[in-house]
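Why does residue order matter? Because the sequence determines the fold. Keep that principle in mind as you read this record.
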Amino acid sequence: MRMNYLCRTSLVLITVLLMTAWARAASSSVAYTVEWINKTRVHVVWVNLNDKSLKVTPAVAKAGIGQRQSFISFLGQHQPLAQITGSYFCMDTAMPIGDVVIDGNIVYRGPVGTALAITPDNKPQMKNIPYGWKYSWPGYESVLKGGIRLVQDGKYAVYPRQQGYRDPGLFRPATRTAIGIDARDRLLMVAINKPILLSDLAGIMKALGCLQAMTLDGGTSTGLAYKDNVIMTPGRTLSTVLMVVQRPQPPADAASPAEPAIHSHVVDTQSMHTPTPSVAPAPPAQTSAATLRPFLRAALRSLLFISR
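Structure:
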């Protein structure tokens, strides 16, 4: 009896330690650094997409498409590991200018911009979608479209007018947010609290090692958070954000979710709001939470067997 008690106690302790290590590993796959590039202070959140326990997803306002809410409200609602401003939106209607796909469902269609698209196994891509073309996004779990392309295949690719952007405020210096993908399949969430041009932003994303990069909304909308640290707070409410969350483990008998209605809206890019005005070292590689899952499961199975 005493031996069984000691075995059970030891296994409980091992399980708790493994669960703690798992949580820490997931957390360490998201890191925050401050870099200085071209005399510019650059805030970067690095997201290791090789950690399958993480999920990158856009989020819309709680009241739905066409509504706005504060950056802080998004944080309180979803409790993400990291969060950055979403895509540009129309100030009159609060509609995003590009597509939004959440959990594989197209919840909104917009006509403009480059898209970040991520598969269920965390493989990221950036796609240039022709203006007004409706793409069905097969095989993608998360999509946020509506950015200006900055870097493509490691080269400068800043041609906003060819993408359909007309708002002159986009071409003036402004505080900026952007996202990029590097050669190690890491997603970079970048925020700069200094007015710069799009060409300057493209240079910064290249210096950070991005092979692909695109803008998100900027100016008064510039926002970035890492865990419970709000690094920059937007001066206005937002239509969308992009966030990193812990991927939930679905139950074995989970039913397929109901497919939501797809909204569509024609956006006049001239009516979009106008924003107001060294190579970075990579964080060290960390053990991912996915590598700890088999040990945790084995410990739990052993605990259940001994307790019988």
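The chain has five helices and 18 strands.
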